[in-house]
Amino acid sequence: MPQVYTTDHSKSVLQTHSWRTAQNSAPHLIPHIQPTHKILDVGCGPGSISVSLAKLVPGGSVTGVEYVSDPLSGARALAQAEGVTNITFQEGDIHALPFEDGSFDIVHAHQVLQHIADPVLALREMRRVVKRGGIVSCRESAVLT
Ligand SMILES: C[S@@+](CC[C@H](N)C(=O)[O-])C[C@H]1O[C@@H](n2cnc3c(N)ncnc32)[C@H](O)[C@@H]1O
């Protein structure tokens, strides 16, 4: 699968993304989150949304996935700095997620589908790894006021 993410993971790009939290970037999802949920955050970038999601599931967990390792050390450092321990970060391609069917209560992606080779295949993968009755959540644009 060709990689088409044309933005890099330079410090300035990651800083631009790292102001994001579940509160400002996934407010639609928050009412549906239960404290024991197991959440997958695909294309997690600097991990700031992932870490804020993990704080909402103290009895559950968050897994952040990126197709390259570049942003993951910063994401792990952020989790450590925030004292968040119910989170792991690993490499994985959204087109072929390295998880069993039905592994998560919520599968989330923020501003990822617009950057990838095959969004339909990605959505199929996200659906495959969510539990029956779970939630697949994608948000692609943000309107700032
Ligand atoms: C615009 S950034 C969004 C990062 C984060 N979700 C956020 O909103 O702060 C898109 C992210 O998708 C990741 N990405 C691109 N192609 C991917 C793929 N095939 N599988 C997983 N992640 C991918 C990029 O590395 C990048 O970090």
From TrEMBL:
GO terms for molecular function: sterol 24-C-methyltransferase activity. Keywords: Transferase. One of its GO terms (cellular component) is endoplasmic reticulum. Residues 37-139 form the Methyltransferase domain. GO terms for biological process: sterol biosynthetic process. Belongs to the class I-like SAM-binding methyltransferase superfamily. Erg6/SMT family. This is Methyltransferase domain-containing protein. It comes from Penicillium arizonense. The lineage of its organism: Eukaryota, Fungi, Dikarya, Ascomycota, Pezizomycotina.
